[in-house]
Amino acid sequence: MSYIWTLAEQANGHLKQVSFELLTRGRKLADSLDTKLASLLIGNGVSAEALRELIQSGADEVYYVEDPRLASFSCETYSNIMVELIKTYQPHTILAAATSSGRTLMPYVAVKVKTGLTADCTELDIEETTGNLLQTRPAIGGNILATIKTPNHRPQMATVRPKSTRPPEPDADRDGKIINVPFKEEWLDGRVEFLGYRKDAGDFENIEEADIIIAGGKGMKKAENFKMLRRLSDSLEGMVGATRDAVDRGWIGYSHQIGLSGKTVSPKLYIGAGISGSIQHLAGIKTSEIIVSINNDPEAPLHKIADFAIVGDLFNVLPELQKRLEGGK
């Protein structure tokens, strides 16, 4: 039986949230094929309780490869492990997150096992007549959505945008198997030495992890006005996001861009100021819990999906909102 696999991620012995988001995707595909779902984790120091959380969240089996030298991501070593496990277990499909490690590892592995890979998918499904994975992703700058298949090679491989789906509700009664895969010395690639991580200084923000996002669009008019959003985000302990229009105009850096050609986010609160709401941008915020739209155009598409739509001049609304917040403190 060919399983669906998801690639779990860990940092400092703790599972990353995207590990569980992928199980939502994988469970749907496995059920469509009437097969099992397995999660592969490479790392060190992950507790048995954390591994059980993968079972409770939808995995039928968890393959865990553990060694102190696997604590930090190494594409060469991780790929050696994946290639051998793929040859041993022959999965039908492998899903990974479109994170920095997923985007690095999956193409490397795909070349080694001579199969295809579709990157940065937003939708996944199974073609009923063939069992092929239907992999949908934005193309041509996000202006169209392309659906791609890998009909002649296995496993089928895809990376999925973080925050593009919500993790499943855990079921404490689910049963599954945790398989500890012994580490082999020949998997270790001695050409690479891990020295540490570096975050780019300056304008970088990891908005994918933000619980609160204050985003600005073309209606902000100029870069100077983004200070209003920064001040508001500081008051709410959030982060600043932007549309592609704002980024293309040089008002803010690309790491803040939300949408099909930027980041997909899923905050508890999203506030969009001066954003009309293109299809590409709305696709990047659709899993937000609460959406607030501020725009003087009553017909703005963002208003139509917002939980709270404020029709008004953002240059009046934002200062008043800031004033209320400071007064409340």
Number of DSSP strands? 17
The CATH C-level name of the largest domain is Alpha Beta
- As a percent range, the share of helical residues equals 25-40%
| Structural class by sheet pairing and helices | alpha/beta
Order of helices and strands: EEEHEHEHEHEEEEEEEHEHEHEHEH
The proportion of residues in beta strands is 15-25%
Mean pLDDT: 90
- Please give the CATH architecture of the largest domain: 3-Layer(aba) Sandwich
Could you tell me the radius of gyration in angstroms? 21 Å
Overall structural domain count: 2
Q: How many angstroms separate the termini? A: 59 Å
Task: Give unreliable regions as ranges.
Answer: none
CATH homology superfamily of the largest domain: HUPs
Strand ordering within the main sheet: 7-11-6-1-4-5-12
Largest sheet properties = 7 strands, parallel
Could you please describe the fold and organization of this structure?
- This protein is α/β, with parallel strands linked by helices and 329 residues long.
- It folds into 2 domains: 4-187, 3-Layer(aba) Sandwich (Rossmann fold), CATH 3.40.50.620; 207-328, 3-Layer(aba) Sandwich (Rossmann fold), CATH 3.40.50.1220.
- Helix content is 29%, strand content 25%.
- It is built from 9 helices and 17 strands.
- It has a 7-stranded parallel beta sheet, with helices on both faces. A 5-stranded parallel beta sheet has the order 14-13-15-16-17.
- Helix 3 (75-89) crosses helix 4 and helix 5 (226-236) runs parallel beside helix 9.
- The N and C termini lie far apart (59 Å).
